[in-house]
Write a structure and sequence with these properties.
With 278 residues, the chain is an alpha/beta fold. It contains 11 helices and 5 strands. It has one domain: Protein tyrosine phosphatase superfamily (Protein-Tyrosine Phosphatase, Chain A, Alpha-Beta Complex). It has a 5-stranded mixed sheet.
C-alpha cells in the first residue's frame, strides 16, 4: 500500500487489498482492488485523489436514498460508476452482548447476501464489475465500508482463493475505522457539521444528534464492532446454504467463467500504481 501514502485521503476506512495471499500462494497486486467508506459530500476531492491512484471503476453499494444528495463520481465514462444497492444492516437490536456480536453480524450478513439474489441481483453486479479483467483500478464502498462492503469483499476474496483467516484479518481492520467514524459523528453532532446526505441543515443536525445518541450503549459501545469471527461465520453459513460460495456467486449473477479469467489477469499484474502518484 505504499503508493497510497502519496495521495492523502480523508477516508478513514480506505485500504488496498493488495498483498492478500490468494490462489496458489500468489498475492494480489497493489493498486487494483480497493475498499472504503463512501466519500462525504464535502470531501469530493477524494474522488480525484482516487483517480490519481488509478481507480476508474466505482462500485457503490448504498441505496438510492443514501446517494440522493451526494455527488457520485462522474458517470460520463460508460461503466465507471456501478450502482449495486444493498440496504443497510439492521441494527434494531442494540442490546447485543459483546460475546454475541459475531453471531449477530453473521446472521444479518447472511440475510443481506440472500436479499442480494433478488431484484437486479446487486451482489452479482458488484462482483462482476470488481472481477472484470478488462477494468483497471476498482473500488467498492458503502456508507461505512464495513458491513455491505465486508460481505462483497469477503465473497470476492474467497473466489480468488484467499483463506478465511486472511479474509477475517482484512475485515477486522474496519474496527478501528468504525471507531473513528463514530468519533467523527459525535464531533459533527456537537458542532452542527453536516456529513449526512440530507440537504436541510436543521434536519442534518437532528439526524446527527439522534445518531450520536445511539452510540453510548449497545452496538456503538462495543470494543470491537468488526470481530473477525463474524465474517468467517458468515462465509461458513453461506457455503453451507448454497453448496459452495462459488455456487452462491453464480446464483447472484456472476459468470462462472469470469473467475479463472480474472485470476489469470490479476495475478499477472505488478506495480499497478500509476507513476503520477509518486
Amino acid at each position: 500500500m505504499s503508493g497510497t501514502r502519496t495521495v492523502p485521503l480523508t477516508l478513514c476506512n480506505f485500504r488496498d487489498l493488495g498483498g492478500i495471499v490468494c490462489a496458489d500462494g500468489q498475492s494480489l497486486p497493489s493498486g487494483l482492488l480497493f475498499r472504503s467508506e463512501a466519500p462525504a459530500p464535502q470531501a469530493q476531492g477524494d474522488i480525484e485523489r482516487l483517480r490519481r491512484l488509478g481507480v476508474r471503476t466505482f462500485v457503490d453499494l448504498r441505496s438510492p436514498e443514501e446517494t440522493s444528495s451526494s455527488a457520485p463520481p462522474d458517470r460520463a465514462e460508460p461503466g465507471s460508476y456501478v450502482s449495486a444497492a444493498l440496504r443497510r444492516v439492521d441494527w434494531e437490536d442494540r442490546d447485543v452482548p459483546p460475546d454475541g456480536m459475531a453471531g449477530f453480524l453473521a446472521e444479518r450478513y447472511l440475510q443481506l447476501a440472500e436479499e442480494g439474489l433478488g431484484g437486479d441481483r446487486p451482489v452479482g453486479r458488484a462482483l462482476t464489475a470488481l472481477l472484470d479483467p478488462s477494468r483497471t483500478g476498482r473500488i467498492v464502498w458503502c456508507a461505512g465500508g464495513k458491513d455491505r462492503t465486508g460481505i462483497v469483499v469477503a465473497v470476492l476474496l474467497h473466489l480468488l482463493g484467499a483463506s478465511h483467516e486472511a479474509i477475517a484479518a482484512d475485515y477486522a481492520c474496519s474496527a478501528e475505522a468504525s471507531a473513528e467514524l463514530r468519533r467523527r459523528a459525535r464531533r459533527d453532532a456537537a458542532t452542527g457539521a453536516a456529513p449526512t446526505r440530507n440537504r436541510d441543515p436543521a434536519e442534518r443536525r437532528r439526524m446527527l444528534r439522534a445518531s450520536a445518541a445511539a452510540f453510548p450503549g449497545g452496538v456503538g459501545a462495543l470494543a470491537n464492532p468488526a470481530p473477525p469471527e463474524a465474517i468467517t461465520l458468515f462465509l461458513t453459513q453461506l457455503d453451507r446454504r448454497h453448496d459452495g460460495i462459488q455456487r452462491y456467486a453464480e446464483r447472484a449473477g456472476l459468470d462462472a467463467e469470469a473467475i479463472p479469467k480474472v485470476r489469470q489477469t490479476l495475478f499477472s499484474v505488478s506495480g499497478a500504481y500509476p507513476s503520477s502518484t509518486a
